[in-house]
Amino acid sequence: MALRRRKNEPVDEQVEEVEPVEGVRHLGPWDSSERSPGDDPAYIDLGALQVRVRVGLNLELPVDESDDIGSVVLVTDDAALELRAFAATKSGGLWDEVRDDLILEVERLEGECEQVDGPFGPELRVRVPVEVDGQAGFQPSRIVGIEGPRWLLRATFLGDAGLNPTDDGLLMDALRDVIVVRGGEPRLLREALLLTPPGTTTVVLDEE
């Protein structure tokens, strides 16, 4: 299981595990106050996100122009899942605002957007026009927002997972395994919870 950083390749407190939370997150993803990776060697510590890798998944850490890492991408043979975390308020409601902004952006790009009810509440099914090898087409995606204690986790399913959405499977299991480490410091609303590369770039998993 290789972990690749896309540019210039060059870990939070563990708390006692508590009872699962109620509501849409009762099966995960988790806040660091609710679950710890403990001694599970399959977990990769990326700072603000702790991600459990599985057989069949590769992890990529895209680097932006400022050399910041704002997301992690979990990749299978025919699909991918991009994860981004943001600071939110205790009262919640940030996903409603972000969802509205995403709908406007899709409209600006002359794409198609449908809001549906999913396992975590309202989510978006998006088709954005793209050009590949001179041919016009659409890139499908499924965008899910999950709110926890003062954070928002945005999950974007791409490839076959965007074209044929399902509430089961390898990528959905990986999403439910995620642990968000918000930290206690003050942050601006919508501030990205930046990621840090792990201390190792290779994880070896046994076949289950």
- Count of DSSP-assigned helices: 3
Radius of gyration: 17 Å
Mean pLDDT score, rounded? Answer: 87
Structural class: mainly beta
The percentage helix is 10-25%
Q: What's the total number of strands? A: 12
CATH fold assignment: Protein Transport Mog1p, Chain A
What pattern of helices and strands is seen along the backbone? EEEEEEEHEEEEHHE
Distance between the termini: 14 Å
- β-strand percent reads 35-45%
Corresponding CATH architecture? 3-Layer(aba) Sandwich
CATH class: Alpha Beta
Question: Could you list the spans in which at least 5 consecutive residues all have pLDDT below 50?
Answer: 1-20, 200-208
Q: How would you describe the shape?
A: globular
Number of domains: 1
Strand line-up across the major sheet: 1-5-6-7-11-10-9-8
Biggest sheet statistics: 8 strands, mixed
Please give the structural blueprint.
Elements: E1 3-5, E2 30-31, E3 43-45, E4 49-52, E5 58-61, E6 72-75, E7 79-87, H1 94-108, E8 112-118, E9 121-132, E10 135-148, E11 151-159, H2 160-163, H3 170-177, E12 179-180
Parallel strand pairs: 1-5, 2-12
Antiparallel strand pairs: 3-4, 4-12, 5-6, 6-7, 7-11, 8-9, 9-10, 10-11
